Amino acid sequence: MNMEAFILGTGGTMPLPSRHLTSVLLRREGELFLFDCGEGTQISLRRLNLKWKKINAIFISHTHADHVTGLPGMLMLSSQVERDEPLYIIGPPKIRDFVEASREVLEMYINYEIVVQEIENPGSKQVVYQGDGFCVRTIPLRHSRTCVGYALEEDPRPGLFHPQRAAELDVPRGPLWGKLQHGSTVELEDGRVVEPADVMGAPRRGRKFSYVTDTLPLPTIAKEVANSDLLISEGMFEDALRETAHGKRHMTAREAAQIAVEAGGIKRMGLIHFSPRYTDRELSKLLDEAREVFPYTFLSRDRQTIAIPYEEDA
Predict the structure, then answer these.
(1) What confidence score (pLDDT) does residue 51 get?
(2) Given Cys at both, which of 60, 179, 260, 302 links 91, Cβ 3.0 to 4.6 Å?
(3) Which of these is catalytic: 66, 214, 229, 302?
(4) Which domain holds residue 117?
């Protein structure tokens, strides 16, 4: 089952000619999940030839303009294509007001169901979306407005099936092998009972994607993003501007890297939500500072595609 992230925008505060506002799309097989919807999201979706009508849910971190200004256009755009499934919009308080006010003021024509889910008690982590074999839960953050991060985490997968073990136990090839692979105990004709553990390897971990932006560097974040195959984290400023960052309730690239180290088990971290004070060339300052702490850091770029393989395939 394929999983990949598409960086739709990397900027914070205001869009630049080469940098749309922050937005990330995650594709897990046929399902699409959008994290934030900054200005320019539609442009990147179009240039990457991604089918926005298949977006299952949009997860909003907070209601500052640079994270939601692309949402009204997305809602109207979805009415131009056939859509049978509801679109879920999940976010902290005020996201319902924003969606309803946008629909009313813009007199939107909407021909599909929109389900807005406001997160109650965003200061505590909770599951806000569940799908087949995975869930999305919140990560409490601290910004100048109520803000949450998100982690999409897959359920553990069954271990590998070992056909030679089944053969050694005289389990007939066919339906019984399938039952064992799906976790069911089987009884043979001679009365012997074979458990799945007799022919299966240890369970394998699923994949994990974490998204954290617009926050002070809280010590609690590390636990929530631990063991992420991909962490997308804000790195808005260089460390020389730490005081400025904290005054605006943001963190520096170095602080994001420190969280990645403290978390443990993170395979890669992509910095995002860059201050417009940095040109594309100057972003190397942020990367260098983060890599001094966490070497597996990279700079997210608009319209970048990142594969998220299973651990054994990486």
Answers:
(1) 81
(2) 60
(3) 66
(4) 3-157+204-313
